[in-house]
Amino acid sequence: MSRSHQPERLTRLACHGQCRPDPARHAHHDQLLRVESDPDAMVDLFETAVTWAELEYPTDTTIAPHEWLDFAQRHRWHDPERMLRIFGLATDIALRAAPAPAPAALDMAMAAGSGICPALDPVEPPRRRLRVASP
How many CB atoms lie within 10 A of CB 61? Predict the structure, then answer.
């Protein structure tokens, strides 16, 4: 069997009958299934993870990082624990790289004079005068 047919055979083994990806996401689904058997597919997974926050991936044709761990759990693998580690690490990389949005209340509080949390000027500690007791 040639190398080009091997990933396809493993795809059928790894994807059980209950898995029905959206037709538009089917190509990315199959690429994720090849991660176990194709080193290039694993490199592609990690490249996607590293660049997820920087590039705009089409959401209609791409399985997003927050779905990768669930994807790994729902499929059959030759080494399930290893695949959970791989997809878990890729998910962690992608989601950590995403900038966290600032909560609206924090933005308002940081605005000078917002009334919620006014800007504080540096305050000097009060000067204390010590009195010496007379004998």
Answer: 13
Instruction: Supply angle C-alpha 85, 87, 88, rounded to 5.
Output: 60
Find the largest Cα–Cα distance for the chain. 106
User: Could you tell me where the DSSP H helices lie in the chain?
Assistant: 6-14, 26-33, 39-51, 68-74, 80-97, 104-110
The Cα 32–Cα 63 span in angstroms is 9
The SS3 of residue 114 is coil
Confidence (pTM): 0.62
Structure tokens of 89?
Answer: 């690490």
Q: How many CB atoms lie within 10 A of CB 98?
A: 12
Distance (Å) of CA 86 to CA 12, 57, 126: 20, 21, 58
Per residue of the chain (135 residues), give pLDDT as tens.
444 444 444 444 456 656 777 788 989 999 999 999 999 999 999 999 999 999 999 989 999 999 999 999 999 999 999 999 999 999 999 999 766 565 665 555 555 554 555 555 555 656 666 666 666
